[in-house]
């Protein structure tokens, strides 16, 4: 999958450090290579990563290579986006979203922080 440099690929081993111990909110994209809806989200996530560069960290995790985190957060459908801050899961967005829908989802949580 082709992501911009400001979207970091993570795995089961670095999830706790990169996501849970982050000083800023983190949006985690759960995806797989074979997932067409996941691929359709790439340009939207790239735009989100640029627009929210000072407010939010964006990472992706391949569910086929990282079963521990997938099982821990009960990821059953992809794409799934989870928003974390201060070791807490703030929100979940399942399925394909428009950029506007995704910005509304993110903003609804960021304004509470």
From TrEMBL:
One of its GO terms (cellular component) is cytoplasm. Transmembrane segments: none annotated. The keyword Nucleus does not apply. InterPro entries: Thioredoxin, Thioredoxin-like_sf, Thioredoxin_domain. Pfam families: Thioredoxin. Residues 1-111 form the Thioredoxin domain. The record marks 36-37 as: Contributes to redox potential value. The keyword Transport applies. The record marks 29 as: Deprotonates C-terminal active site Cys. The active site is at 35 (nucleophile), 38 (nucleophile). PROSITE patterns: THIOREDOXIN_2. Disulfide bonds join 35-38. It comes from the Bacteria. CDD domains: TRX_family. Keywords: Disulfide bond, Electron transport, Redox-active center, Transport. GO terms for molecular function: protein-disulfide reductase activity. Belongs to the thioredoxin family. Participates in various redox reactions through the reversible oxidation of its active center dithiol to a disulfide and catalyzes dithiol-disulfide exchange reactions. This is Thioredoxin. It comes from Wigglesworthia glossinidia endosymbiont of Glossina morsitans morsitans.
């Amino acid at each position: 999958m082709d992501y911009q440099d400001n979207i970091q690929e993570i795995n089961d081993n670095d999830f706790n450090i990169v996501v849970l111990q982050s000083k800023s909110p983190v949006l985690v994209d759960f995806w797989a290579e074979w997932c067409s809806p996941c691929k359709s989200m790439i340009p939207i996530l790239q735009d989100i990563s640029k627009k929210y560069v000072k407010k939010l960290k964006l990472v992706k995790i391949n569910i086929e290579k990282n079963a521990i985190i997938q099982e821990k957060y009960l990821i059953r459908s992809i794409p799934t986006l989870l928003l974390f801050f201060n070791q807490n899961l703030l929100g979940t967005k399942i399925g394909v979203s428009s950029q506007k829908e995704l910005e509304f989802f993110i903003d609804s949580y960021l304004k509470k922080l």
